[in-house]
Amino acid sequence: MAAPATYPPVALIAESNGEMLAAEPTIVDASQADLAAIIELDAQITGVSRAEFWIDFHNQRAASETLCLLIAKTSDEIVGYALGEIRAWPVRTPACGWLYAIGVKKEQRLSRTATALVAELTRRFRAHGVHTLRTMIDIDDYLLMSFLRSLGMTAGPFIELEMSIDQ
Question: Which of 35, 78, 87, 164 has its CA 20 to 30 A from that of 157?
Fold first, then answer.
């Protein structure tokens, strides 16, 4: 396991009265002990509790070298997470890295925590010979779209299509 990484150098962010708001995050692999905090943070961010999803992903990750569940910590508090996988889809392209989920505590969002999480995720994908990072987001998620574009992400070669199969 690689040593914890800190990306990029981030100064402390302070209010005008000098009170510290956020500190530089440390990015590490999530452990079983971190799951409750991840589930809670995800529910705060998304408004949906997905405990089974997170537990299942964590269990799958134990048997895989290509699944990543990273957390950002400051002072032993989990302030962010990123979830990704190297995957080859049957659509005429080589394996690529997928960013499945990313979330950062609202108070931590201007401290480049999400940037640090994506940097570590892409570093790990590159170590496996992957040259592309992809993700899918809600079409109306302008905040996430803006963040991903700030990292250099652009429209990819595929368009997601869907239809209801309810009766």
Answer: 164
Total Cβ atoms within 10 A of residue 90? 5
* 64 half-sphere exposure, CB direction, 13 A CA radius: 14
Q: Mean pLDDT, to the nearest integer, of 19-37?
A: 81
Distance CA 114, CA 103 (A): 7
CA 129 to each of CA 66, 70, 116, 126: distance values in angstroms, whole numbers, following the listed order: 11, 19, 20, 5
Domain boundaries, the chain: 24-150
> Which one of 3.40.630.30, 3.40.50.300, 3.30.70.270, 3.40.50.720 gives the CATH number of domain 24-150?
3.40.630.30
For residue 114, what are its two tokens? Answer: 């999400």
Cα gap 128→57, rounded to integer Å: 20
Q: 125-154: per-residue pLDDT in tens? A: 999 999 999 999 999 999 999 999 999 999
Q: What is the distance between the terminal CA atoms of the chain, rounded to a whole angstrom?
A: 48
Structure tokens at 69: 């569940």
Measured N-to-C along each axis, helices 35-46 and 51-61 cross at an angle, to the nearest 10 degrees, of 130
